[in-house]
Specification:
single chain; Rossmann fold; Tumour Suppressor Smad4; six-stranded antiparallel sheet; 41% helix; flat; nucleotide-binding; acylglycerol kinase activity; lipid metabolism
């Protein structure tokens, strides 16, 4: 023992390094063990769904998974195959995986949609936006309006695998463990609880419309946030550095535009999910004959109410147009999107401090901003305007656009606990 103590004392640097290495290795192994336990528990829960008896005449439910292999710095495929795929297969779903870089024709996507019971998007915010864009483009080109309505009712599951997963904060409980977050999201798809989410249709003058479930940003905070990754070598200071160096440009940074908007619209009642059964043939014939022989109703001229557009000239450091998906209220009686016009009188210090908050919650509306609730708006930019929009964290060229709210357009699977919290908060 004396000899060992002497050796440790004479080689204390190596001893310290060895202890640190063993501690790190032990902690890493323990973390892997805990992740395996989470996977095993999730698979056992999924197995319970797979063991449920179904009639022999009922086909298996088909799920189409859109996987973005490039998400999470190329780790998304491995994360999906280790944490989500086993759960989906054990549950008894007939799973088809489609990579988002698939170059097939739109017709192939439509064939998949016509034979699927649910859609699963595995990736980040950009993946959600990309998948909705591809499917909507295919619908516009090849589907009737009736078929589009059917597509909008297909429930969508979201498995968060990307760097930014804004939707996961709405749909699933917060978790610091990535494996637990992914398995919770996958199990939520099996449990079947859904919530309706709004969609923004953003249309330029000539291009096809772009669809967003989070929103649009235009301004200095967005421009600085895009450059944060360039300062990776500064570690935790990279966000402040990006915003600090952004202030070296012309200051104050003003973005000028003209905004026209319509106010909120009244929410119609929920349509019943199951349509009433069709009446027998003889009843339908009788109704048609009665309608034919009855006297034609008098046409009552309907007055067309002109749309009451509000117009506003704005000068702002940042403009944000966002859905209410991050603050879902399942019982609200009006449909609207939030327009936030931030003051352009921000000091450089406030800009740097507020930039960190904007990275965590991009569509937050700071105190002193002008907040507008609208169902539709038109953003006109001065000629020669440069820069970019951020639409669901994807970059698009800044141009005049019309933004239209499509309320409750899509149904996303969510954790039952989150849905219960939403209903409880609405009651209070």
């Amino acid at each position: 023992a004396v000899k060992v103590l002497g050796t440790l004392r004479n080689h204390w640097k190596k001893t310290t390094f060895g202890v640190c290495l063993l501690s790190w290795g032990g902690n890493w192994l323990y973390g892997k063990h805990c992740d395996n336990l989470l996977r095993r528990a999730a698979c056992q829960e999924a197995q319970a769904f797979g063991n449920q008896l179904i009639p022999s005449s009922m086909p298996l439910k088909k799920a189409t998974v859109f996987l973005n292999p490039a998400a999470c710095k190329g780790k998304a495929r491995n994360l999906f195959e280790k944490n989500a795929a086993p759960i989906l297969h054990l549950s008894g779903l007939d799973v088809t995986v489609v990579k988002t870089d698939y170059e097939g024709q739109a017709k192939k996507l439509l064939e998949l949609m016509e034979n699927t019971d649910l859609i699963i998007i595995a990736g980040g915010d950009g993946t959600v936006q990309e998948v909705l864009q591809k499917l909507s483009d295919a619908n516009v080109n090849l589907l009737s309006s009736c078929a589009q309505a059917v597509f909008s009712k297909i429930p969508i599951g979201f498995i968060p695998l990307g760097k930014t997963c804004t939707l996961s904060h709405t749909l699933y409980p917060e978790s610091t463990n990535q494996v637990q977050h992914i398995t919770n999201a996958t199990l939520a798809i099996l449990k079947g609880e859904t919530v309706p989410l709004d969609v923004l249709q953003i249309k330029g003058e000539k291009e096809q419309p772009v669809f967003a479930v989070t929103g649009l940003r235009w301004g200095s905070y967005r421009d600085a946030g895009v450059k944060v990754s360039k300062y990776w070598y500064l570690g935790p200071l990279k966000t402040k550095a990006a915003h600090f160096f952004s202030t070296f440009k012309e200051w104050p940074q003003k973005h000028q535009a003209a905004l026209m908007y319509l106010g909120p619209t009244e929410r119609p009642p929920e349509e019943p999910e199951e349509k009433p059964s069709r009446p027998p043939l003889y009843v339908r014939l009788y109704r048609r004959l009665r309608l034919y022989w009855s006297s034609p109703p008098k046409e009552i001229p309907q007055e067309v109410t002109p749309e009451d557009w509000e117009e506003l000239k704005l000068s702002t450091i940042e403009l944000s147009i966002a859905t209410r998906n991050s603050q879902l209220d399942l019982t609200r009686t009006e449909d609207f999107m939030d327009i936030c016009i931030e003051a352009d009188t921000v000091s450089k210090g406030q800009f740097v401090n507020r930039g960190s908050q904007k990275m965590r919650d991009p569509h937050t509306c700071p105190e002193g901003s002008q907040c507008i609730q609208a169902s539709r708006c038109i953003l006109q930019l001065p000629e020669g305007t440069e820069g970019s929009f951020g639409i669901d964290n994807e970059e698009y060229e800044a141009m005049p656009v019309e933004v239209k709210l499509l309320p409750r357009k899509l149904r996303f699977f969510c954790d039952p606990r989150m849905r219960e919290q939403m209903l409880h908060a609405a009651v209070q």
